Each structure stands twice: as structure tokens, then as C-alpha cells.
Amino acid sequence: MNIEGKEYRTIWFDEKNQAVKIIDQTKLPHQFIIKDLKTVKDAINAIKVMEVRGAPLIGGTAAYGIVLAIMEKNDPNFIKKSSEELIQSRPTAINLKWAVDRMMKKLTGVNNNELLKVALDEAKEICEEDIKFCENIGLNGLKIIEEIYNKKKDTVNILTHCNAGWLATINWGTATSPIYHAHKKGIPVHVWVDETRPRNQGSNLTSYELNEEGVSNTIIADNTGGILMQRGEVDMCIVGTDRTLSTGDVVNKIGTYLKALAAHDNKVPFYVALPSSTIDWDIKDFKDIPIEERNSEELSHVEGLDENNNVKKVLIYPKKSRAMNLAFDITPAKYITGLITEKGICDASKEGLGKLFK
Ligand code: MRU
Predict the structure, then answer these.
(1) From the alpha carbon of 93, which atom of ligand 1 is closest?
(2) Average pLDDT of the segment spanning 248-268
(3) Which residues 6+ apart lie within 8 Å of 240 measured at CB?
(4) At the N or C end, where does the chain have fewer CB atoms within 10 A?
(5) Can you tell me the mean pLDDT for 69-84?
(6) Ligand 1 close to Cβ of residue 277 (< 6 A)
């Protein structure tokens, strides 16, 4: 998608410099910086510190991480150790393990001198596939927006949480893809963007990318969605997910659950958009999902521009206070109107997912 009128993807391989290029998302929205990843450690660090984030993009970065490991040292023990370290770099998004497992499977039995080429082709394929899946999610979700517009004949107001936009994927996004498709079709849409404390992926990333694509949006504090729903100012919610169980329960950015409860109480449709790479077919009970707990400094400190336009980080909590920073929560399937996938829209249930993915 576009940044200042120029088309970008979030990750790509630079053949000339033999490096993986990423947009450093810790610097957005105030600075646009493209960064090189040259070693598997660079890839692991980029995932950990969230220079790249969002389930599908974490998966794509991990796939390229395997490529970088092979470039560094074409040795089976090093590649295996790197794959394990990549999987451990963030615990909740299942796309990470999915992508590493897929890469390792592809490399099994491959001749040493062909290993790099096979790995690079597969990493590229993982990213191309994600783009196609996200585009299809958009076309499937577009039907829901069209239906609302045809009834309402006025701007469709959509609430989203965190950033499940193109910056969280390779292109298009998951939750934003139906919105971009509707906008390109000329359907008037307006997005309520949850700020998404503590890391502000909503205000820093979602609002930023919607602005760049010319989609009307308004940032709101995370607790504002409820009253907007009570006032009839939200037609639907669409969020992304880091892991969806085969039962239809959804793990996503902290605060998603409370938004789903408010939507349920106000009869506002609540959709979750996801590629099939985000489905965890193994874990059956959401209590078994590892929920990432991040450094409390993400809560106690905020970053922004000072009066001289320099980026500055400041403490906003009392120095003696403790804080707790759980990064994800679980939305039970019963609060979800439907799952928008690359294969179609289904009920958030074992039966629903079973019909689309045999
Ligand atoms: O902590 P983050 O920024 O990686 O969390 C991202 C989300 O929660 C997204 O909603 C999710 O990964 C879906 S991305 C299409």
C-alpha cells in the first residue's frame, strides 16, 4: 500500500545487498525508516522489540530469518537452533511457529548447495501467499460492508482495535482489507480507531496507514467504543487475531474482549478477519494459550514529539508505582458474529471453520 504516494510492502528481500528490508515500525508515525536485517539475530531482535509486529508479518519475518541463518552458516545445527530461537521470540502469534515449521519442512532432505535458494523461494512464497489471502479477506469482508451501505445509504462506521492493517501483514492487512476494498469501490467508510494502549498501534499505525490511503478515520481512547455503540455510531467492528482456535475463540490485542462484550450488548456485529495461517488447530482450550507479558515500561513511559519536533520518551506514572502489561486477551466465540477468512465468512465455531477448511 502507499506511504506518501509510494507503493510499499512491509518486508522484502534486497538481492543486491543480500539483506531483508523492513519498515521499522517502532519509529512510526514520526519517522519512516527502512532497516536492513542481515543476520538471524537481527530478525529475532526485530520481532522481539516489535520493529515488525502483527501475526502475519511476524510469520514472514521468521521465514526470512531462516534464510538469513542459512546465509550466515549453512550448518544443520545452527539452522535448527536458529529456528527454535525464532519460535521463542514472541509467544502468542501462531503464525511465527507456523512459518518456521513450514520452512523447516521444506528444507528437509534438500541438498546443501540448494538450501539457500529453496529457503529464499519459500520465504517469498509465504509472503506472496499472505498477500493473496489478505486480498481475498478484503473481497469477502467487502460484501458485509456493501450490505450495510445498501441498507443505510450513508457512511459505514467501522470500529477497529490495534493494527490489523497492511503494516501487520505483508500488504492489504486483515481487518483493514475489507475497508480498503470498500474505499476503492467508492463506498463511504469511516473508521473509529482505538488508540490501543500501551503501544498505541491504533494511533501510531492504523490511523497513519489509513491517512496515507485517504480513508477517513478518527482516533478514540480505548474506552470510548462503548458509548459510541450505545449512540448507534458504530455499524460494525472488525479486528484481527494472533491466534484463533478451532473452537472459534480468538486471541487478539488486549482490549479486544471488552470491545466484543460492548458490541454484543449493543447488537453491533463483531467480525474477526484472519488468514488460515492464524488458526491453531492443536490447542483446544484457550486457557492453554501463552499470553505474552511485556515490559511494564511500555505502560509507564510514552514517546512523542517534543516542541522541537524531536522524538522524546517520558515517564507518566508515579515513580514508585508498579504496572502490569499483558499484551493479549481472549474473546470467546459466542461474542463473534463471524470469521472473515481467505476462503469465505464462517461462524466462529468448530463447524463453521470445518466447513471452510476441511
Ligand atoms: O502486539 P502486536 O502489535 O503484534 O499485536 C498485533 C495484533 O494484535 C493484531 O491485531 C494481530 O496480530 C492481527 S494482524 C493482522
Answers:
(1) 12
(2) 98
(3) 54, 55, 162, 163, 164, 168, 173, 174, 175, 252, 253, 272, 273, 274
(4) C
(5) 97
(6) no
Report the residue among 25, 50, 135, 241 best suited for mutation to probe ligand 1: largest number of ligand atoms under 8 A from its CB. 241
Q: Is 242 in the pocket of ligand 1 (CB under 6 A)?
A: yes
Domain with CATH 3.40.50.10470 in the chain: 141-356
- Residue in 138, 133, 132, 129 with CA at minimum distance from that of residue 99: 129
Ligand 1 contact, 189 CB (< 6 A): no
Between CA 27 and CA 58, with CA 24 as vertex, the angle to 5 degrees is 130
**Whose Cα sits closest to atom 15 in ligand 1?**
164
Which segments of the chain belong to CATH 1.20.120.420? 2-129
pLDDT (tens digit, 9 = 90+) per residue, 182-237? 999 999 999 999 999 999 999 999 999 999 999 999 999 999 999 999 999 999 99
Percent of the chain scored above 90 by pLDDT?
100
State whether the beta carbon of 65 lies less than 6 angstroms from ligand 1: no
Q: Which fold has domain 2-129?
A: Four Helix Bundle (Hemerythrin (Met), subunit A) (1.20.120)
Name the architecture of domain 141-356: 3-Layer(aba) Sandwich (3.40)
